[in-house]
Design a protein that fits this description.
With 193 residues, this protein is α+β, with helices and mostly antiparallel strands. The protein has six helices and nine strands. It has a single domain, classed as Aminopeptidase (3-Layer(aba) Sandwich), CATH 3.40.630. Bound molecules: coenzyme A (COA).
């Protein structure tokens, strides 16, 4: 799917593929220290990325410039939930489900933040998820309360705060219940890396 960013550049949104590996490593290693502090679902070396996508429940999504083919955003969906977050999420009264829950971690390259890429990539991911059995999106490890852009981004996209916890500062746990009107429900999609 092709979109125009707020800086008027054309950007392509799609699933991550095995051909993206080197570009993805460049993307990850070029993130600023600040962004790396906010986004770290896996290590940023090649072997760690390969191992991460060996696990069928992990799906990657990228935004890529149409002209230079540079990856400018990368988001992860894990089907199910993180064991590490489960006890905390259950303490809010949530019943977790490995089929209908998924866990979301978004990132956008520093120079491209606030250009509308996060919103557009999220909508693209949402439309992909509606072809699966997913009913709810959970934030990967919550969001740091002082990460104003991210908190606004989640709220803007319909996420609700369900709790808060302290870990490297104060954090919110947020979830998005996919409206039943959006869900097309079929089988879980394939992995492309
Ligand atoms: C959080 C992140 C994914 C958002 O993506 P983005 O492309 O920068 O965001 P967008 O430009 O699509 O804007 C999405 C919403 O975020 C908010 N937002 C964006 N830029 C903002 C800014 N400078 N100040 C405050 N809110 C801002 C707005 O609500 C915006 O929606 P609107 O433009 O419709 O009002 C991205 O900034 C990022 O990767 N940040 C670093 C890594 C990170 O924090 N990941 C999340 C960890 S929990």
């Amino acid at each position: 799917m092709q979109i125009e960013a707020k800086n008027n550049r054309q950007v392509f949104l799609r699933r991550l593929s095995s051909n993206d590996l080197d570009n993805l490593i460049d993307y990850l290693q070029n993130l600023s220290v600040e962004t790396k502090k906010r986004f770290g679902p896996h290590n940023f070396d090649k072997q760690s990325v390969i191992e991460f996508y060996d696990f069928n429940a992990n799906l990657g999504y990228v935004a890529q410039t149409v002209d230079t083919k540079e990856i400018i955003a990368y988001s992860i969906i894990k089907i199910g939930y993180l064991e590490h977050d489960a006890i905390r999420l259950q303490s809010y009264g949530m019943t977790l489900d490995i089929i209908t829950d998924c866990t979301f971690a978004p990132s956008v390259a520093d120079l491209w933040q606030s250009c509308g890429i996060g919103n557009n990539l999220f909508r693209f991911i949402l439309s992909d998820l509606t072809t699966m059995k997913i009913e709810r999106i959970i934030l990967w490890g919550g969001v740091q309360m002082d990460n104003e852009i991210a908190v606004n981004f989640y709220r803007k996209n319909g996420f609700k705060t369900i709790g808060q916890f302290a870990y490297n500062g104060d954090n919110y746990d947020m979830i998005y219940d996919i409206p039943s009107t959006l869900r097309k429900a079929s089988s879980v999609g394939g992995i492309t890396i």
